[in-house]
Amino acid sequence: MRRFCVIWRRELAACFLSPIAYVIMVVFLGATGFTFFLGAVRNVGAADPLPSLLIGAIVIWLGMLIPVITMRLFAEEKRYGTIETLMTAPVTENEVVLGKYAGALTFLTIVTLPAVGSLFILERFSPGLSLDDIDMGALCGGLIILVLLSAFFTALGLLISLLTRNQIVSAVCCFVAVWLGLLLGWLLSALPGGAGRLSEYVSATTHIEDFCRGIISAPTLVLYASGTWLLLFSSVRILESRQLR
Amino acid sequence: MINVKGLTKRFGRFTAIDNISFDIAEGEIVGLLGPNGAGKTTTMRIVSTFLPATGGEVTVDGLDVFSNSVEVRRRIGYLPEQVPLYNEMRVQEYLAYRGRLKGLTGRALRGRIQEMLEACGLIEVRRAVCGTLSKGYRQRIGLADSLIHQPRVLILDEPTIGLDPNQIRQIRNLIKGLAPRHTVLLSSHILSEVEMTCRRVLILNRGRIVASDTAGNLVGLMKARPRARIQVRGPELPVCEALAAAPGVSRVTREGAAAGEWITFNCECEKDADPRVHLFKIVSSNRWDLRELTMERRNLEDVFVEMTADGEN
Question: A242 and B86 in contact by Cβ < 8 A?
Fold first, then answer.
């Protein structure tokens, strides 16, 4: 447990030791804020509640952010050979994978959380809008699905990073995987019959819509939790094998 | 302390290590020698639990490196060849991180960091960012890292590469000083260094052990079959034939390309023979000119070349 914390701390420190972290934060906040305000302006008077617009804006840019954050996790260690010193220290593969995962997820949270502030900035500067107009239940639901998506796709990015020593390859593959994950269900839901209904049921876009309406369903929670667990478990096994170097 | 039995490692169809066995006793310093691609680094990676073996058994302190990997790692300090460091960290931060990872905390950790900074000559760069330091400093940071948790077994892959002569001496003394309490397995290209630091030498070639003995014994083995070096001015072929016919000489080879009219020959001698007088008489009776005639002192380098030459050709 202590070694898990040591790795977690280092991962987080590594993010903030490089200038890229600050660039990412600024760009992400600017991009989500802009997307959200644009959405809000275009939807004035429409039925779409503000929280769902905000969560939508964050999810769009999360698809860019996650590959950038996760690409270095293992690819960098492999490229510089530090994986050799890391894996010959008395740490288990579980501790390494979970430590790195926790570090990436913490950084992701630090970057995304302030984006929620856009909602309150909009409220402050829009004369006709007050805090009571914002559906807090919907916002909470939206934040929960955000956490679930982040957890799942960060684990996916970590697994991809483990398979290559090139950060660019890792980022591109992760980018494709994240967007497929987000949109594939929605695309396939156009299929006729049972396949379409099943696709709609497991589609990320359906989940986002539901949660942003305040509908928090246990099967969805279990789906993302088990998916995340599966990805992390696979990562540990791959790291243990070390044959895919 | 380290027991290797029938170790084999294959990468696809390529056999990097072919059924090697050796034992290293506690407190021993053993040098691993071999040309590039002989399997030195692979052997060290397997012993340090980084790579799994294809076949065979490796134990450190009685613990299997595969099934008891974490326990083995507690006991070893490993310095990889390329000395990977986190380039964005400061030296002291890096050592603190590595120390914590290896289970040190609080005052013990601070004490060990200070000791290591002093022992490895890193005091003046303790606040420098690792990525900006030269190869020599990186090497010493790596060494400090491998020693920080006072491991019983040290595995050092080319520990003195990239250091200047003063630093080499310093590190060599540091390694020598570890001997009674630590077991050391080190690889090196610098043969004189292995001769000086290691009690025993393993010579590896094409994944097999071709020699395993003390450096002194290996050199002694070669000394028994000495070599005379002779520089003559005369027609190459007749000189060569005449020299080969001298008593005590088993084989004559020309050294390098002919530089002008002077030709240098190496005469391999029979056991304990000294054919210098005969060689001089042959040259003078043929009225050729003689410029140099010496018996060569054989060192580990000759042993190394002899033992590993077959693989090259």
Answer: no
Query: What are the pLDDT digits (tens) for A154-174?
Result: 999 999 999 988 999 999 999
Asked whether residue B307 is domain-assigned, the answer is: no
Cβ of A133 under 8 Å from any chain B Cβ? no
Could you tell me if B82 and B144 lie in one domain?
Answer: yes
Residue pair A18/B88 in contact by the 8 Å Cβ criterion = yes
Residue A176: pLDDT over 90: yes
Domain that holds residue B263: 227-297
| Candidate from B52, B76, B145 with C-beta closest to A242 | B52
CA A80 to chain B, closest CA, distance in angstroms equals 6
The rounded percent of chain A whose pLDDT value lies above 90 is 41
β-pair partners for B264: B231
Pick A18's closest partner by Cβ from B50, B85, B88: B88
Do B165 and B237 share a domain, yes or no? no
Q: State the complex-level ipTM.
A: 0.85
Q: Tokens 């292995």 correspond to what residue?
A: B194
Cβ atoms B183, B26 nearer than 8 A: yes
Do B102 and B199 sit in the same domain of this protein?
yes
Same domain assignment for residues B76 and B156: yes
Dig out the tokens for A183 from the structure. 């949109």
Distance of alpha carbon B99 from the chain centroid = 28
Domain boundary among B164, B193, B215: B215
Q: Check whether residue B86 and residue B159 sit in a common domain.
A: yes
The pTM score is 0.82
For the segment B129-183, what is each residue's pLDDT rounded down to a tens digit?
Answer: 998 988 888 888 998 999 999 898 999 988 887 778 888 888 888 888 777 788 8
Does residue B63 sit within a domain? yes
Q: What is the mean pLDDT of residues B234-242?
A: 85
- Strand segments, DSSP code E, in chain B are 2-11, 14-24, 29-33, 55-60, 63-64, 76-79, 153-157, 183-187, 200-205, 208-214, 227-233, 249-254, 262-269, 289-296
Same domain, B123 and B158: yes
Residue A119 at interface with chain B, using a CB cutoff of 8 Å: no
Q: Give the CATH number for residue B157.
A: 3.40.50.300
